[in-house]
Design goal:
The complex is a heterodimer of chains A (186) and B (126). Chain A has seven helices and no strands. By secondary structure, chain A is an all-alpha fold. Chain A has two domains: 60 residues, DnaJ domain (Helix Hairpins, Orthogonal Bundle), CATH 1.10.287.110; 95 residues. In chain A, helix 4 packs antiparallel against helix 7. By secondary structure, chain B is α+β, with helices and mostly antiparallel strands. Chain B has five helices and three strands. Classes of the chains: A mainly alpha (186), B alpha+beta (126). The interface between A and B is medium-sized, with 23 and 16 residues.
Chain lengths: 186, 126
């Protein structure tokens, strides 16, 4: 693992579970110390370095505070990259996604569309929560010292959870968009 | 992003949207999804006793290009044998719809969907 990975950059242990307060505190502290304003009277090279570092730390924060991005980043630290060709999804999962999408598209036919939408949204959110929980458990094993574990297999499991989460995040976005439409409509 | 006229046509007037009875032995269902954009696509074929696709239906939740790709494929496969339908390439779809490079994966999804539907039909026969 590279010494300047995002976790090191923000002085956090490499882990899927993150102390959000610490993440924010560390971010602000580091950002303050490397801020380009501090280097107004320094050499060009130093100023450039400070700008670069600032951008890097911003990327680190954006990546680490989002569970999906964090999981994808942790996979990349294990040399696993996701590609657009990863379409091999469990048919049962896709069926369920289809059903949720269908329900969402018919939401206006309900007597109370907003509460029907809320039901779908909370279903989606509880599924996301479950995936996050699974990811935490999987990464805890992957990053542990236990050498007997089959890490390749565990990483594959992470990947499949991540792919599912991409669908659910998208669906959640869709729900929130619909909610906005409905609220504006009534 | 600017869609081509053909994509817009399929998007505004999608052909063959619908569902077939999955329990029907003559129906093959292909279910695919693209995690990167969250698109889901269902493509179904009804095959007659001569192995010719007599009808096709689809339902896609996704962007205009994904809807157009699946709509186009349902038009193309009607009247084709399973082998002929299995030869449809994503590049044919992308070319017909003039898809930009960032939307090529939508045509890949449609190719995967028809292949999955054919496989499902064949599995049901054995």
């Amino acid at each position: 693992m590279t010494p300047d990975n995002y976790f090191n950059l923000l002085a956090l242990p490499i882990s899927f579970e993150i102390d959000k307060n610490k993440l924010n505190d560390n971010y602000h502290e580091i950002q303050k110390s490397i801020h380009p304003d501090n280097y107004a009277n320094s050499s060009d090279a130093e100023r450039r370095l400070s700008v670069q570092k600032t951008a890097q730390v911003n990327d680190a924060l954006a990546t680490l505070k989002d569970p999906l991005k964090r999981a994808i980043y942790l996979l990349s630290l294990h040399e696993i990259e996701l590609s657009a060709q990863d379409n091999k999804m469990d048919p049962m999962f896709l069926m369920e996604q289809m059903e949720l999408r269908e329900n969402l598209s018919q939401i206006e036919k309900h007597d109370d569309p907003l509460s029907a939408l809320d039901e779908i949204l909370s279903d989606v959110q509880s599924k996301i929560k479950n995936l996050v929980k699974n990811l935490a458990e999987l990464f805890q094993q992957i990053l542990s010292d236990d050498l007997s574990l089959d890490r390749e297999n565990l990483l594959e499991q992470v990947k499949s959870q991540v792919l599912k989460m991409q669908f659910l995040n998208r669906l959640q976005e869709e729900c929130l968009n619909r909610e906005e439409d409905l609220v504006n409509q009534y | 992003m600017a869609y081509s006229d053909k994509v817009l046509d399929h998007y505004e007037n999608p052909r063959n949207v619908g569902t077939m009875e999955n329990d029907d032995k003559g129906v093959g269902t292909g279910m695919v999804g693209a995690p990167a954009c969250g698109d889901v696509m269902r493509l179904q074929i009804k095959v007659d006793e001569n192995g010719v696709i007599e009808d096709a239906k689809f339902k896609t939740y996704g962007c205009g290009s994904a809807i157009a790709s699946s709509s186009l494929v349902t038009e193309w496969v009607k009247g084709k044998t399973l082998d002929e339908a299995g030869e449809i390439k994503n590049t044919d779809i992308a070319e017909e719809l003039a898809l930009p490079p960032v939307k090529i994966h939508c045509s890949v999804l449609a190719e995967d969907a028809i292949k999955a539907a054919i496989t499902d039909y064949k599995e049901k026969q054995s």
